[in-house]
Design a protein that fits this description.
The protein has 471 residues and is α+β, with helices and mostly antiparallel strands. Among the domains are: 67-179, Uridine Diphospho-n-acetylenolpyruvylglucosamine Reductase, domain 3, CATH 3.30.465; 182-194 and 220-293, no CATH class; 303-431, Alpha-Beta Plaits (2-Layer Sandwich), CATH 3.30.70. The protein has 15 helices and 19 strands. It has helices spanning 24-33, 86-97, 112-118, 154-160, 193-198, 232-263, 265-274, 289-293, 314-328, 337-345, 349-353, 402-419, 433-439, 443-453, 462-468; strands at 2-6, 13-19, 39-42, 57-60, 67-72, 75-81, 99-100, 132-140, 146-151, 169-176, 178-179, 181-190, 207-211, 216-226, 284-288, 303-310, 365-370, 387-394, 422-423. Helix 9 (314-328) packs antiparallel against helix 12.
Length: 471
């Protein structure tokens, strides 16, 4: 019997036969029985793209959730079942050895397999995919028979680190760990991008947000600190900021955004211009890394597109973003001559002007740094400088997102043509296979590895055909 599935954003709904295997043997039996149809593993379904969508067989791996900490070549690794959530893994690491992960994304409800397969990242480090030291997966051998593969080196490992579900069914992963640490955070308001980027040397975990219509940067200056027990007063401050983060930032500000959307464009613009003054700034906060680097981003249904541009092109990309935002919102805009010239040269300006006054961006653009990664297809692969991600959110109801999709489509096309931008695999993805082929030099090697684990394309779906093309 087919079961109905819906992703977090509510923008993808499908029906498929769903299984919850409890062992590797059960996974192999399912692969053997369904070798002539499509099979995809589904994690927590926190992706907005249709990467997990499958109309035939869907595997829910939540029962494969074991965790074992072990040493290899002097490195402490966590062997984690593919269906284990990030929150469960963090809890176990801290309980058993005062350990944590080298980087953390914004939310902790994702499964390990899902987070790895789409290149989930935080700010100031590589993504989680980069820190996968080995993997165990189920796939098909050259004769098309189900088999178990252990991967620990070479292009196979680099492909599996961000496999998009194409390199087989992940069963378990070996993840690097680091000693538990704290993070110091200070929120500031700044108008200078150069000054913000110049501070990464001392605050390497920084992320910032560009606030539309105010056109100021909210800068979360962050640096790691050695773990230590706080004093009584420090502990009271920690508890205050945890409560402030939950009630005001995670819940209060998002309720304000949704209320502004309901009231209309003028309310949205006024709310965003007011936003910087409503947050506590200039006060140093210190807490466990998990508490500072993550947030309750999953409390309200929303959708996101995330673009990645090279550091050397970030300033110009943000100028284009501001101009496009103002045009779509029907605001007066006076872009720099280089922006106008670049858009005209690529035939993008006329298409932009056709959208004047059709979409008012109602949420800040979140910007995070991603360091180069040792993978074949994660967003930070095959680059020689840091990338900066630009997240474009909507909290509008699903039935009212068409203007947002038009905004994203124009932005994605523009940033791809002008700056070679890449898109996050698990988020809104309006580009196609030609754009992907140009952006990822490791694509040919990736497809070669996929053929070794899946000679007949069982693990490929419509999303993969659209963004990677036929094999």
């Amino acid at each position: 019997m087919k079961v109905r599935s819906r992703n977090f954003g509510g923008n993808e709904v499908w029906e498929a036969q769903r299984y919850q295997p409890a062992s590797e043997a059960e996974v192999l039996e399912i692969l053997d029985r369904h070798r002539h149809v499509r099979i995809r593993a589904a994690g927590s379904l926190h992706s907005w793209s249709d990467i997990a969508l499958c109309l035939d067989v869907s595997l829910d791996l939540r029962r494969l959730d074991t965790i074992r900490v072990h040493e290899r070549d002097g490195v402490t690794l966590a062997r984690v079942g593919a269906g284990c959530t990030l929150q469960a893994l963090l809890d176990r690491l801290q309980a058993t050895g005062a350990l944590t992960l080298p980087t953390l994304g914004v939310i902790k409800r994702q499964t390990i397999a899902g987070a790895i397969s789409t290149g989930t990242h935080g700010s100031g480090m590589q993504s989680l995919s980069h820190f996968v030291m080995g993997a165990r997966l189920a796939g098909y051998d050259a004769a098309g028979r189900p088999a178990i593969f252990d991967v620990s080196t070479g292009d196979e490992l680099r492909a599996v680190r961000c496999g998009l579900g194409c390199t087989g069914i992940l069963l378990s992963l070996d993840l690097a760990t680091v000693p538990r640490y704290r993070v110091q955070e200070t929120l500031e308001l700044d108008a200078s991008l150069d000054r913000i980027l110049g501070r990464y040397a001392e605050d390497p975990l920084t992320q910032f947000a560009l606030v539309p219509y105010a056109w100021k940067y909210l800068v979360f200056r962050r640096r790691p600190l050695r773990a230590a027990s706080p004093s009584f007063l420090e502990h009271a401050k920690v508890l205050f900021f945890r409560l402030y983060q939950l009630l005001w930032v995670d819940i209060g500000t998002h309720l304000g955004v949704k209320a502004a959307i309901a009231l209309g464009a003028a309310a949205v613009k006024a709310t965003l211009r007011l936003t910087p003054s409503l947050l506590i700034r200039g006060v140093r906060r210190v807490d466990e890394a998990e508490r500072v680097l993550t947030m309750g981003h999953d409390y309200f249904r929303h959708e996101e597109m995330e673009l990645f541009v090279p550091e050397s092109r970030l300033a110009e990309a943000l100028e284009v973003l501001r101009h496009a935002t103002e045009v779509f919102a029907g605001e007066p805009s006076a872009p720099a001559p280089r922006v106008t010239a670049a858009l005209q040269a690529h035939g993008l300006l006329e298409a932009l002007l056709l959208h004047r006054g059709t979409h008012t961006q109602h949420y800040p653009f979140s910007i995070r740094r991603l360091l180069p990664e040792d993978t074949l297809l994660s967003m930070g692969s095959s680059v020689d400088e840091p990338l900066y991600s630009i997240s474009v959110f909507t909290y509008a109801r699903r039935s009212r997102r068409e203007p947002y999709y038009a905004f994203c489509a124009w932005l994605a096309r523009c940033m791809s043509e002008l700056y070679g931008a890449r898109l996050h695999w698990g988020k809104h993805f309006p580009l196609g296979k030609q754009d992907v082929a140009l952006a990822y030099p490791g694509l040919e090697k990736f497809n070669h590895v996929c053929r070794a684990f899946d000679p007949h394309g069982v693990f490929r779906n419509g999303y993969i055909a659209r963004v990677l093309g036929p094999r």
